[in-house]
Amino acid sequence: MNLNIVVIGLSVTSSWGNGHATTYRALIEALAQRGHRVTFLERDVSWYRNHRDLVKPSAWNVGLYETLSDIPRRFGQLIRGANLVIIGSFVPDGIAISEWVTTHAQGVTAFYDIDTPVTLSRLEQGLDYLSAAMIPRFDLYLSFSGGPVPQMIEEKYGSPLARALYCSADTERYTPQQAELKWSLGYLGTYSDDRQPTLEQLLLAPARTLPFEQFVVAGAQYPEHLTWPGNVSRIEHLTPQQHPMFYSEQRFTLNATRTDMRALGFSPSVRLFEAAACGTPVISDQWSGIETIFKPSHEILLVSNPHDVVDILRDMTEERRRTIADNARRRVLADHTSYHRAEQLETYYLEASARRRRKSRKLSEIRPVQVAEF
Known about the structure:
By secondary structure, this protein is α/β, with parallel strands linked by helices. 39% of the residues lie in helices and 16% in strands. The strands form 2 sheets. Strands 3-2-1-4-5-6-7 form a 7-stranded parallel beta sheet, sandwiched between helices. The protein has a 6-stranded parallel beta sheet with strand order 10-9-8-11-12-13, with helices on both faces.
């Protein structure tokens, strides 16, 4: 099976303030290596243009557009003829694009929600990238969140087919590095108002308690007014090429979950998989479903307060730290690589395609009613 796939997403060319980039890159690389032809379309905007860090892909294509009219004018034929067209969350003018694509695409159409908890919490108030009325028009809803969430999307919003498609790690790029340990605990992530209290509780408070240990926070868009303990280093931005070394320089790395994602559960961040793939043990806040991703105390360390973090940093033996890291990496290699996600997407495509064919046959069997003439 060799598919022609078009993805319209937020950005694949820049990871600056954008967690979607590495998720898209990993999935598309795996799809391309499995023989599929993939084209990614994104709006050419200044904040991504000025921070592009994608090494030119050799096996798939990127197309940039400036206006809505560019999509039908420049890419209309490509979209109409694709076997699968995927529109991602947070795409500018996503509703208008979705209306056009679901009207004109001849193949399977899918919405890839890399922000499912945020989407569902705000859908009724109105979003720029998706409306409730659009959900039934897609053949397939790919959800960042698993567990009971896909079934809820089908039952509440009328999706004909909703399936979980978690993020993953590109394990050809995210691998353990030979590095000197610089930091006891680190964190990588773009600033978020609702995530900052967790960062404060599970990294900054332990840093104040352990003044002779070194900590680090890397990521864009943190407000200038924030104050940092003296033993917390700040890195404004790291390209994905720098992530593996960054993780390998930490004894532990922190997974801090946004409020909507923690409330909904079953929503693992891409950083969770990438850090584990690099052989760095993860300390995480707790939420429903995390035990289905990594086994607590065996593959991941779950904490509730600063004291839990301090106890781990101060008391855990090096042997146990390495064992947890190795267990987590094995779990990623067994269940959470980009190849696993590509295989899942292929399965979902076949499922949606078969459903379309059944629906088409039923429609063709309907005959117009003959009205008697008077």
